[in-house]
UniProtKB/TrEMBL annotation:
Source organism per UniProt: Caenimonas sedimenti
Subcellular location: Cell membrane
Transmembrane segments: 42-63
Entry annotated with the keyword Transferase: yes
Protein name according to UniProt: Sugar transferase
Length: 234
């Protein structure tokens, strides 16, 4: 179990304190918690898309004016039950991103080693200048609220994976597939892109195993600070 301390850090609750959260855990175990989680998703996503539409349109305009190509970026990811869905973000990369990345990794062994362990680069050659800004501020994630409304994603959950990333989860892949992936999650508020992929997997698995509504609320609260400070974003 987790809680937010006085310094706004997400920390694990001592075993002796878990008994105080039995009610939350029992709701989740009965399935009612998952219904409430879905209601929270629908309400939160709908409110954001209505109230945040001016911001959404400004970011879309920025993407359009900053580089040639579409405003949105679509990619198939794996969701609950192993079902594939069309994952949507604001485009933050150049159009020939795969070729640019492969060429860069071929010329820089240190960058390749970093990519193989983190699946992220601090200075990714594919990212545009405006793309760097929206990634650092998490504004590129805004279209995922549509994914939440459609039922493909949740506000909180494991980060949506591509099908070929199942190898990083190994025996834990089935655990990942038991819940809807989230816009935010435990690993995003615990280090974000500074973590290795193996650490991300451990946190995704722990989230699924210890899930409760209270944990979701703690992560959402922590996400606000992470987004405002830009900690771990690149």
């Amino acid at each position: 179990m987790y809680r937010v301390d006085s310094d706004d850090r997400l920390i694990e609750t001592p075993p002796q304190a878990i008994a105080r959260d039995v009610h939350v855990r029992s709701i989740g175990a009965s399935g009612v918690g998952r219904v409430l989680k879905r209601l929270l998703d629908i309400t939160g996503a709908a409110l954001f898309l209505v109230l945040g539409m001016p911001l959404y349109l400004l970011v879309a305009l920025g993407v359009k004016l900053s580089s040639p190509g579409p405003v949105h970026y679509w990619q198939y990811r794996v969701g609950i039950g192993g079902r594939r869905f069309a994952f949507i973000k604001f485009r933050s990369m150049v159009m020939d991103g795969d070729e640019v990345l492969n060429s860069f990794l071929d010329s820089d062994s240190a960058a390749r080693a970093k990519w193989e362990t983190h699946q992220k680069l601090e200075r990714d050659p594919r990212i545009t200048r405006f793309g760097s800004f929206i990634r650092r501020t998490s504004l590129d994630e805004l279209p995922q609220f549509w994914n939440v409304l459609l039922g493909d994603m949740s506000l909180v959950g494991p980060r949506p994976c591509m099908a070929d990333q199942d190898k990083y989860y190994g025996e834990h892949w089935t655990t990942y597939c038991t819940m809807r992936p989230g816009i935010t999650g435990l690993w995003q508020v615990s280090g974000r892109n500074t973590l290795t992929y193996a650490e991300r997997v451990r946190m995704d698995v722990r989230y699924v195993q210890e899930w409760s509504l209270w944990l979701d609320l703690c992560i959402l609260l922590k996400t606000v600070k992470v987004v405002l400070t830009g900690h771990g974003a690149h």
